Amino acid sequence: MFNQANVTTLIIAVISMAILTALSRALPFLLPDDSPVIRFFTAKNSPLAPLGGAIIIAMTMVLAVPFFGTSDANSPWLASIFGIVATIIATWRGVNTGMSVIIGMMGFLLGVLIVKLFGL
């Protein structure tokens, strides 16, 4: 399932997400409130505004992709689809990111329950 190229790609993705997350958390504290950069990112019509909701969906997809590549009968592909759909719906409805993650996990667990009950 995992080979050296997959592990390397995973490590690069995790490090990149860690750096971008750290920058997004630290940047508002390092720049003054009247900075053009802060005004650009916090504007309601900013072209980057949709990225807030899209990042949680992207992370869900990245975590679920390995399940779709396996042919094992016990592969949780149905549970992953439930989790992804629940996360997308929660994000689309304007639920905050933390709750979207929780709702996505509940969708995944619902999918696991359905698989276990019906033997899919």
Task: Give the key terms.
about 120 residues, mainly alpha, 5 helices
Total count of helical runs of at least 4 residues: 5
Major pleated sheet: none
Provide the succession of SSEs.
HHHHH
Bulk shape: flat
Helix and strand content put the structural class at: mainly alpha
Distance between the termini: 22 Å
| Average predicted confidence as pLDDT | 76
The residue ranges in which pLDDT falls below 50 over 5 or more consecutive positions are: none
What percent of residues adopt helix (DSSP H or I)? over 70%
How many β-strand runs?
0
Share in β-strands: under 5%
* Radius of gyration based on Cα positions: 18 Å
Describe the protein.
It is built from five helices and no strands. The longest helix has 27 residues. It is flat, with a radius of gyration of 18 Å. The protein has 120 residues and is mainly α. The chain starts with a helix and ends with a helix.
Short description:
This protein has helices at residues 4-30, 36-42, 51-68, 77-92, 97-118. By secondary structure, the chain is mostly helical.
Show the helix and strand layout.
Blueprint (H helix, E strand, L loop, with lengths): L3 H27 L5 H7 L8 H18 L8 H16 L4 H22 L2
